[in-house]
Amino acid sequence: MKTDIIMDSVKVLSTILDIEEDTKLVHGTRVGVVCAWVAEALGMVPQQRWLYYSGLLHDIGAVGLPDHITHYAWQAPSELQSEIRAHPLKGMKLLTKIPLGAQVAEWVYLHHERYDGRGYPLGLAKEDVPLQAQIIRIADSLDLVIRSHGTNLLSLELLKEWGRTVSGREVSPALVQVLFDEVLNEERYQVLINMERLEQENERMSRLLNPGVNDDEDAQGDSELLNRISLVMAEVIDFKDRYTLGHSLRVAVYALAVARQYGIVRHGLLQDLALVAFLHDAGKVGVPGRVIGKKGPLTAREWQIMKKHPLMTEEVLQNSRFLKGLAASAAAHHERFDGMGYHKGFRGEEIPLLGRITAVADVFDALTSKRSYRGAWTVAEATEYLLKESGCQFDAEK
Length: 398
Description:
Blueprint: H1 2-17, E1 19-20, E2 23-24, H2 27-41, H3 45-57, H4 81-95, H5 102-109, H6 131-149, H7 156-166, H8 173-183, H9 186-193, H10 195-208, H11 223-238, H12 247-261, H13 267-279, H14 289-292, H15 300-306, H16 309-318, H17 327-330, H18 353-367, H19 379-388
Helix pairs in contact: 1-11, 2-3, 2-6, 2-8, 2-10, 3-5, 4-5, 9-10, 11-13, 12-13, 12-18, 13-18, 18-19
């Protein structure tokens, strides 16, 4: 069961990392699948699962950039260079908190090293760069080439030409040879450029590398492990905006306090509430930084983008075996008791109980925290606002 939870959590994290507005970028998906293919070709069967996970999560440290890191593949503003170069270290620190094994964190840390010694963060060269890090590197670069050219202008032959340009520079010549002689053929190339087929292959790979997982079994899992990994997810989510660091954890603390104040003591329900609070803003990772960090009022279009994030949260969690039962509650934190909220416009007790509690905690933390467009309110000011909105924005009982 612990393996199931880890696999499921990697899947959720990978989805969170690759959403942008309402688009699936599938960057991590493509990198993970290619890593698994290469590992298989090289006979690295014991490490194949971990390389697959590494590919899915290799950019976990880049979530704080204004836009998805793929936008900065070829040219990045000078003011973002230090943050971009820091993302492997940040990723390593996050991954050490998930029981994936120390090797996954190390490989992710080194995935921007180059065979010619011109990479970062350590400037390693040739055989000093672990083969696993080189595999992530070439899979990452392959995705960026496919993304930059577009499927209509690309072919397997053009990819082979690209391979010759990176051989001995980004990765070892031997690895490039394996990629094009033993891994990529026309069939697999078509998988990489077709979104539906790529997601099918990702699902196949997930099942292949995690035998014994049964979608029909009771997905209660190990609550302590699920809580631990969800806390890491919350940390990743909150990296999206420097003003919200620690937000999801504080929302969980406030939500649990509210629940206990009103007599909710059942451990299972409190556990679910904590998970809802940790993950309520998962969809916000897909909102561009220019919208989240804007100092002035949002335009109508920007509000439209912002209001999509609860829906994206719901879609992310619906794809989780262990968290799908909480998806509706996590997505309800911007609903209003009077029916004027979003994203579904639920009214009163149509709003899930855990969502109603999380909404109160979310607003309290937002008001008492500094934002790009205003200073922090005092606790007294925030409390007065909550009381004033009782029965309108919030459940009067909560």
